[in-house]
Design goal:
This protein has one domain. Helices cover 88% and strands 0% of the residues.
Length: 56
């Protein structure tokens, strides 16, 4: 299993080696962060939206 994950990672790295590589890395990191903290992320977004509506 580890070798298949490594192969997928290397394929993704090769395909992103361009101008958007940094953006792709940031999106992947954000996705991993949100996936690990899904409920907390939903609460944070709801609070930010609520505060935004209060200010507006």
């Amino acid at each position: 299993m580890e070798l298949s994950v490594l192969g997928e990672h290397l394929h993704a790295c090769r395909s992103l080696c361009g101008r958007l590589f940094t953006l792709g890395c940031a999106v992947e990191a954000a996705r991993a962060f949100v996936a690990a903290r899904f409920v907390t992320s939903l609460v944070a977004v709801a609070l930010l939206l609520g505060l935004g509506l209060q200010v507006w």
